[in-house]
Amino acid sequence: MTFTSRTMNPDFEGVIDLSPEELARCSSDDVAMIDVREPSEYVGELGHIDGADLIVLGTLPENVSALPKDKPIVFVCKAGGRSARAAAYAQSLGYTNVYNLKGGMLLWNSLGLPVVKA
Question: In terms of Cα–Cα distance, which of 19, 24, 17, 27 is closest to 115?
Answer without folding.
Answer: 24
